[in-house]
Structures are given as structure tokens and as C-alpha cells.
Amino acid sequence: MQIRMAAQHCAQVRMPSPASRTAASTAASRAARIVSAPAHVISTPARTTASPANTAERPFPTVEHTAHTTHTAPRLNLVQTFSIGFGMLAIAAAWAMYNAFVPIKLKELAVPTAIVGIVMGIDNVCGFTVQPLCGILSDKVRTRWGRRIPFALFAIPAAAVCLMLVAAAPNVPLTIAAVVAYAVLMSTCRAPIVALMPDVTPAAQRSTANGVINFMGSIGNVLALGGGSLLYRRCGMSLTFAAGALVMVGAIVALTALVREPAEFRTRPHEPAQLPFVGWREFRDAAVPRLDLDDDARRRFRTILLILFLYTMGSSAIETYFTLYATHDLGMDAGEASGGLVWFAVSGIMFAIPAGWLGTRFGRRATMGTGLLLAMLMLAPMPWVGRAELLPWLAFAFGILWMMVLVNALPWATELGGTEHTGTMTAYYYLATSGGAAISPALFGLIQQYTGTYRWMFLYAIAGFALALTLMPFAGGRSKVASETSGTSSDRADTPAHWSRDGKSPAFAIA
Fold first, then answer.
1. Which of 8, 50, 294, 328 has the greatest count of CB atoms below 10 A from its CB?
2. Cα–Cα distance between 29 and 504 in angstroms, integer?
3. pLDDT tens digits, residue range 191-230?
């Protein structure tokens, strides 16, 4: 229609001089050639200052050419992302209740602090053993529900039963056995649930989507800690854990009802499910994948892993021993201690999505560094000024700063290798963070047994944060994708990305 109007316009132009008639004739003949061209190769004519003769011989851009030079980033499906977040809500509620009350149960059974640290680190050992194995399996499984959701349908209800057994166990061996079973089951479903989001989310939108997922996880924390603290005061640990188990199962029911995996991952009616076997070599390659990086990228990658390991070492001590610090050093009861943690979850709800926006706007590395620095300044006086009335304020402020780190860390780490290495980078991300979280509780447990107090956990955390912050400048540089396409720094979230979904995305590919 635009071409016909152009031809009509050329025919209606007044031509008062021979030169004008010649120009109009040339324009009309050019328009006629455009109309006669095949429809599938017509696009906007190229602008040029060349002579009419040269212009007539120059080919116009084709549709195929413009398709390769124009990239439109897909938009984030918020409804789908929030629905997937129910899976993270179940996981977060389960672990919040576990971390708040299981150390108290173990100390009630007179378990030494160092052993408490080892027991509380079992789930992190599962993080780099059971978790990658189930990640591989979920890539290959095909059932009527899809490839990811069946793991949640199996593991979450069974883990809910184990959580209730932890509270009901009358002695140390049964309690530890229930804890181990719980940790294994929760690690079974974590990677598949996490992989639901990147399966259907464009790479350029994953920081925002990760903020939404963490927002839903913070809601799970509030339900577990707020409701759990009230129930613990009135009814004890057994009913508290039973209520937590109910929240876990309810969240998975909502996930299953609201999220439908793509058709290529679901079997047809009356078609048998596909349950593949995973050999040792395949498991090893998933737990410690091979990387194809140049020397500079490999150096940066090792630095990033060390940063993740160090700040996780610091945060894990506070996460594991916060309620014991409140009950042992400050004289609070367990219900009040876990109630103080609610404010950590509330600030996570409020700041999870803004933290993703900050990472997108100012850079992920800069946002993480700012969060770590402010956390160090806030925690420094706590060993000497810590009081029960300060804990809610401390938890709220630390939750804000921790969201700045947590929301941006995974996308920052995985972006180094580009989209083709996202799954591999994420597997290493979990390896580094799970390693730090597995070692730290036992290490600080030894420190606590030597000093007799939990208040030094704040300085212990500051040491981990400071070492991580010191290494951050050495993790800069250019990623392979950024240097080849856009020329922007790899820790910026707004780097243009070429996104596609081919049905082969790895189970760890959240970025």
C-alpha cells in the first residue's frame, strides 16, 4: 500500500522544467521496479547520496537480511514467573523452618556445637552431589506432567513427612537420620524447580525473573518464620513442623495446578514415561563440568568462584547460628528468636525485585559489592552492642543488603561464558556456594566451642565478606559474548542477548 501511494504521488508531482521531468521519470521507473519485485524481498529502500544510475543498480535490503540484524528481546511473562515461584516458596519455607528450629532441637539433645555444624551442613553436601544428579535426570525425564514438576511431586511431600519426624524423634540417632533424609529429598527437587524458570524465560530478563522468584521465596520465609514462631510458643515444635509441612505441600499443589510445561517435555496419553539412567561419567561432568574458556576468562571464572565461596562462608554462619545466638547469648526464647527472623524475610519481599532492577541499572558486580560493604559496616559493632530489641532492625536491614548480593550473584556468575555455557556456569555456582555452606557451620562451631559464645559470628561473617569484596576488582573484564557482540562489560545486565529455546536447556540454566 505504501509503495502504491509512493507511485501515485510521483505521478501527481508537477514538473515545470525538463530537469524535473527527467527526475520524475527516473523516480517513476524506480517505483515500477519496486512494485514488480517479489513480495518476499521488498523492504524499506536504502538511503543513498549516489547518482540515480548507481541507485538503480544497487540492491535493496531483503527481509532475510533485516531478520539477522534486528533483535527484539522477548518480554517477561510475569504470571508464569509468579506461578513458578510457588515452587521456590515451598523450598524457602521448608529451609527457613529447618534452619531456625533444627539447631535448637539438636542442642536440646546435648549435641556439641561442632557436630551441630556438621549436621546442618549435610544439605550443602547434597547440593553438589544429589542436586546435579537430579538436574541431569530432569533434563531427560519425560512424563505426563513434564520433566521438572515430577521431582517436586515426589520429593516435597516425602520431605514434609521427614520434617515432622525431625520434631517427633526422641533421640539423637533418629533425629539425625530424619535430617539426612530431609536434606536428600529437598536436594532432589531443588535443581528441577529452579530450572523451570530459565526453561521459559529469555536470558536478558532472568535477573528480573530471579527477583520475582526470590520475592516468592521471601513470602515462604515469612509464612514459616512468622507463623512458626507463634506456633512454637503456643504448641511446641511438633505442631510447628506439621504446619510447615502443610505449607510445603500446598505450594507444590499450586505449582502443579498453575504451571504447565511445554508439550515437547510431556508424554502423550497412554505413552509410557521416560526414566533414563545416568552413568558415573555423566554425573561427574554435570557436577564438575568442563569449560572452554580462554586464559583471561578462566582466571576471572576462578576468581568469581572464590568470591562466591567466601561470602557464602560468612553468611552461612549467621544463617545457621542466629537463633542459637539469640537464645544462648541474649536469653531469648526460641519463638522470639525465630520471630525476629521474620523481618529478614519481610525485607526480602520488599527488596527482591528492586535488587534485580539495581543490578540491571548499575551493574551486578557493583550492586553486590555495595551490599557486601554496607553489610560489613552494619555487622561490625554487633558483638558489643547486640541486644534483643535490636535484632528485628538488624534482620530487616541485613535482608535488604543481602538481596543486593543474592539476586545478582547467579546471573553475574553465569554470564561470563555466554548463553552456550549457562548451564555449566550455574553448576559451578552451586558447587562454590554449597561448598562454602557445607564447611562454614562446622568451622564456626569449633570457634564457638573454644570461645563459649556465638557473638563472634558477626566478625566471622565480616571476614568472609571482606575477602570476597577484596577480590571483586579482579573479576572484571570482558566476557566472550560481550566482547564479540556489544562491547559492554559482562557484569552489566543490559547486554544484548541472543535468546532461543530449543528444548535442550540444562537443568541448572538459571541466569
1. 328
2. 51
3. 787 777 777 677 677 767 777 887 888 788 888 888 888 8
User: Which residues touch 187 (CB under 8 Å, ≥6 apart)?
Assistant: 123, 126, 127, 129, 130, 131, 134
pTM: 0.63
375: which 3 cell numbers? 553489610
278 and 190 in a common domain: yes
Provide Rg for the chain, Cα atoms.
Answer: 28
Mean pLDDT of 381-403: 87
- Judge contact between 85 and 216, C-beta under 8 A: yes
Tell me the three cell numbers of residue 393. 532492625
CA dist., res. 99 & res. 341, Å (int): 11
Q: In whole angstroms, how far apart are CA 356 and each of 107, 403, 470, 471, 477? A: 38, 9, 23, 22, 21
Q: Which residues are bridge partners to 146 per DSSP?
A: 143
Q: Residue 21 — pLDDT band, cuts 50, 70, 90?
A: very low
The domain of 387 spans 78-485
3-class DSSP state of 266: strand
pLDDT 10s digits, 367-382: 999 999 999 999 999 8
What letter would DSSP give residue 270? Answer: T
**Cα 415 from Cα 477, distance rounded (Å):** 12
Q: Which residue has the cell 541466569?
A: 511
* Statement to judge: residues 99 and 26 lie in one domain: no
Does residue 502 lie in a domain region?
Answer: no
